[in-house]
Design goal:
With 84 residues, the chain is of the alpha+beta class. It has three helices and three strands, in the order ααββαβ.
Length: 84
């Protein structure tokens, strides 16, 4: 799965994200870092794509980040691993 392409295909609200057993992730386009985020920090009716405008990578401080809806791997049930 490509994280960047997933962000354009699926744009749920935070509430819909968690009801569908998915997690909120952030991918930095500058350094490539992928991390999960705590969705309870955001309004439940906010769209995932709208979060990208307000976020900054905690590693390199770039504003070139994308908030994405992350699903478990359908083959093994595991969440994708975070990466630095």
């Amino acid at each position: 799965m490509s994280f960047a392409s997933a962000a354009h295909i699926d744009d749920p609200t935070i509430e819909a994200l968690f009801k569908s057993d998915r997690r909120l992730g952030i991918v930095c386009g500058h350094c490539g870092r992928f991390r999960y985020m705590n969705g309870s920090r955001f309004s439940q009716d906010q769209k995932v794509s709208a979060l990208s405008e307000t976020l900054v990578c905690s590693s390199c401080r770039s504003k070139d980040v994308k908030a994405i809806a992350v699903s478990r791997n359908p083959d093994n049930g595991y969440w994708p691993a975070e990466s630095s």
